[in-house]
Specification:
Structural class: mainly beta
Strand order of the largest sheet: 82-81-83
Shape: flat
Distance between the termini: 127 Å
Helix content: under 10%
Number of strands: 141
Number of helices: 2
Strand content: 15-25%
Largest sheet: 3 strands, mixed
Amino acid sequence: GSGTVSACNSGTYSNALGTSCTTCEAGYYCPNGKSATRALCPSGSMSAPGAAKCTFFTSGTTSSTGRVADQVTCSSGQYVDGSYTCQNCPAGKYCPDFYSSPINCPTGTYSPITQTSCTVCEAGYMCPNVDGTGRVACTAGYFALPGSTACTICPIGFYCPSTLRPLMKECDAGYYAPTTGMASCSQCPANNYCKDKKTATPCPTGFYALLGWGECLQCPPGKECSGAIPTRCLAGTYSPEGISTCLSCPIGYYCPAEASRPMPCLPGYAQGSTGQGTCTTCSAGTYSLVGSSICNPCPAGSYCAVSSQTPILCPIGTYSSSGASVCTQCTNGYVCPTGSTSATNGPCPLGFFCTFQTISGIKLLNLQPCPKGYYGTTQGKATQALGCTACTQGYFCPIAGMTVPLVCPKGKYCPTQSDNAQPCTSGTYNPNYGSIDNTACINCPGGNYCPTAEDEPIPCPPGYICPSGSTTYTTKFAAGTYSSVNPITLAANCITCPAGAYCLIGSGAPTLCSPGTYNQNTGSVDSTACLNCGSGHACPKYGNIKDNGVPCPPGYYCPAGTAYPTQNPCLAGSYSDSYDAISSATCLPCPIGYMCEAGTNRFTSPMVICPAGYWCGASTSSATKTACLAGTYNPNTGGTTSAACSFNCPPGKYCSAGSAAPTGLCTDGYYCPQGTGLVTANPCPLGTYSPGAGLKAQSECLKCPAGYYCAAGTTVAPLTKCLAGTYNPSIGKGLVGDCLTCVAGNKCPIDGSTSMTPCGYGYYSDTGATTCITCPITYYCNTPTTTKASITSLTVACEAGYICNGGVGEYPKASLMCPTGSYCLAQAVDPTPCPPGTYNPNPGGKTLADCVATPAGQYSLRKSSAPTGYCSPGFYCPINSVRPNMVPCPIATFRALSGGSQLSDCAPCPSGYVCPIGTANPRACPIGFYCGPGVSVPTKCPKGKFGASPLLRFSSQCTQCWAGRFCTISGLSFPDGSCDPGYYCISGAFVPNPTDTTTGNVCPAGGVCPAGSKNPQPCLPGYFSTLTGLKDTSQCSQCTAGKYCIGEVRNAESGSCQAGYYCPTQSSSQMQNAAQPGYYTSSGATAQTQCAAGSYTPDYATSVCTQCPAGYLCPAAGNTGVFTDCPAGQYCPLGSSSGTNCPIGTYSPTKNLKAATDCLDCPPGSYCLGGGSTVSGQCNTGYYCVAKATAAIPTSPAGYTCTAGNYCPPGVGIPTPCGVGTYNPNTGSTTSGACGACDPGKYCSRMGLANYEGSCNQGYYCAGSTVSPRPSTATCPTGKSCPTGSSSATSCTAGYYQPSVEQGTCIPCPKGYFCPLGSTGFDTGQDCPAGYYCPEATPAANTNACPAGTYNPVINAFSVSQCLPCDPGHYCPNTAMTAIPADPANLCDPGYYCILGATTKTPATGATGGQCQAGTYCPQGTSYARPCTLR
């Protein structure tokens, strides 16, 4: 009826219905109350009533009352039967303790009666029965391991000499056992191998073996093995390893006695026969390389001082013939380049001369260039006098070794033997090329200057004077004068500065006086000559000669020096209606009720009435008008004092400063009483809010509701809620502090809360909580308002022996008690399991001390409420053991029974056996293994080794697999077999085809490996192989033609046949066959090649054929050194087989020429078709032939079409230039008639021009055939302009003028004046007339008339703004009016008023006037509507 489940205590168990707990009976145990049944105590243990566990009997005792506490003593080797009496353990069984039943002995062991353990059958015995009957020793030829039930016959390859040995013994090396059951092994016979120690096999060819060796060895190198014992090879023969007969030594090699391979002849030695034991020494003038079969003669162009070195090319300056041991000096005048074969090879090059000089006893070639000032004219010369010529006058030679002199440049001259061009001195110039002395330097003309080495005079810059012979420019024009003409040569050419201007030093033109000034004098030198114009008027133009100008207009004043009429306006806040005002004193204050801007006057810029929202006192401008104060407004214009702002702002609205009407409604959150100027001046107070806009008083603000707070100025949307975690139960609150913090143990979950909510049982909260928190693990919350403080202060912490899993609201109660097998500390998150090796049978455990230690011989897992079980066989378990295999019996011990409690319970392992850790029964170390001390398992002899003996203790006792043999798997007692053909096995091989390079490898390319090879053997000389894995020498390939093979282990031929030799297939030397005279071979040749036509060789073993000497022919192939003269008219360069015609453009009357350069160049003005002894003819008209021309109409660079600027009659070497003042743009001209006159506007100052040189200078004009850009007879006159390239002077266009000569442009007419076509000035009769205005560049007096509505009574006006508006009451209907006529016809009609600038007497209402309105009247000529008055 309680609704809860209670656990039974340990020592009790629940009945079948689960309604009560029953005490555990004697002989049973109940480890915890959760068991529904009791458990029977195991054999050898007992228990009293209410026991939670059983107690084991003491060794040698038993219970006589059936599992109760009285005991009976038993002897060793006995056991307790079912009647609780001691019985002897029977034969064939063992009884380790009294409480266990007898256990059968395993096969291979035996026991008599009363034994506690079984005995393993001894080595050399067989034990067929476990009771010991039938145990006998094995006979000879048999063996038995420990634990054997029968004797085993000794296998093939093994012998069994003693029955006391535990296993068979493998036959030793050199012995074998061909049958089973042998007591001893037989010796392996001679010339046989006994690989598996089971059979005898004959040795293969090339191998041998003595009696008892057991394996065959390869025939050693340098010996032959035709019989059983190897015999040494004689001198002249050799043999590699594994060859059964000696081989003959090849040519190019020698073989001493007992040689394993041929030795190549060293450099300087040779051997041309086979079967030789030594090589022959080469003589001086010959040479040989490694493996040579002959001594080669040293080739021509080289020398062989030492026969062991390759030929060395003769150095530059020397030569040699074939077979030379030293080189000979060349003939003077010849270079003899490296490798020369003749004393006259390589003539000294053009521009140099060649001699020999002795330095430190050695003759060396001295190649010297022709010195500066000279150039080379002939090659092959030994002295300067023979090979060099002094530089011709008009030319210079600045670099040593030149072959062509350079033409003397312009501005310089060059006498004979010049190494540099001499400059013309400053003040002179030279426009020509090729000058020979200083007479070519011309004096610099006036108006120009000439620095050093100048080729053309430089014009004097503006403002300077340059007389004839000037070297630079330094003298400027004098102040007060100017000249626009350039260049000039004398100060007298300068012009006096005119009135209205001044001229600084070096002036190219007068500087006009600025507006506002004038100058009546000429020759002025600076700006101080320009005087201020008088007051009351303005002088707006540049260059005024007199003090006259424009009258000062109304609204402005003009003190002395005023440049423009509108330069000085009356300031803002003032006005003036006066003309010709001279100071600001004439500017009057602006009247009240109006605003005046700068320049205000009643004619052109009248004053403005004061706007609404403002008032204007005296002297007011738009920037200084006074705004009505905030809270007031003024709807009227023309306000004169602050009284105009007498309108108070109405309630519910606000008025900003300067308002003409109320600005707007009072905004939300605020109220506005009468006279409010700032919309945010009156916020609703704290705790209230505004329901809308336009509030007029504080009383219209509403109180803030509960759950909210309202700051000053709060509007209806949105109100501010108290935040979650706070609440406000009252209305009318205005501060955030009026929101109360939620009390701990409660929550305020939403914004705007008006009250708190308790958390409830199983929950807690802190102050200001928005949610409640589940009671944490290890705590309980047993009130509805549990606080966080009670959690942190541990006042509700879970006690030891209990578990609080979170959310606990009721405490304490039985369901929270700590379970059995565990303990719970105070505030435990989870029960702490009793650690392995302990157990706890009771609930409510509080500390580790409540966990009981597990007794020795048993173990307990983690969280146990009783011991889990007994220790396993092969292990022992001390107190607190945690698993059945707690401590394994160590290596070399064992235990066959369960329940072991200490180390002494493990018995020693029998000698000669292996006992892994935790062994229950020992095991004998098997054959093919080794068993070191303390190992857990037997170890096989590794791959690459074998071991035939039993009971091996170390790996080192295993035998390394023999060389030439392999041991494939671990645990072998003998090698598996011989290494595979195509492979070699060094030692320790574990496969028949190893590739690891340590134990062996595949037979390398070039090597041969028959079966059982220890090392690779080379292919025979003359053979090679690129393949790996060869098994026999027959698989080697013949050496490729062009290659040689000396018989070595490598993956290719030994190398290419040496140049000068050729190698057919199967060659064994790089010098197998020497090339014959007239033949040559390159490296790798398979046959000798005949020297081509144009080359020869007289020597043997030549690698290249020598080119036929220059000047001679070698017409047929295979030439051995017989030459033919080169015929006349031709030249024969090095290596010629036939003569070559002298090239076109040259000719030659002599023979034995060596190069085309030996042929003579065709002279200027002629042409040569080539191959002839004379020139072929003259150059055609319209062309010129420079040199080496090949046709009458030449081509570049031998000749050219006559160039533009020139003409060419027949047979000329250079063109004839056109004269000055002319040019010729065409090529191919034949006569001087092709030279035409220089174009108008252009100039041609030099001879030979293809086009005009340039355009005529600015300020000048060139009519045609002009020779200067500044012709003195064609200067530009006044009133005209001559821009660059002018052919005639052009009159200044209307609106422009030019008072000076030699000018390129005209000057714009100044403001206030007009300039007709061709004007030379503007200040005489060209004033702008009254009624008009003339801006800059005005072409005529009547160009710009003052518009209708205006008039201009003065001259020299330059802007429409100077046209005065028509006077008030008048109208001006026409343009260009100079005054308003006094005629009444020019008055405004009655009924109308004319303010300013009216164009009609009946103006439409606007800025210039209008029609008189109702209530007003307008008499004729009125300027305003007059109000009607009562009479």
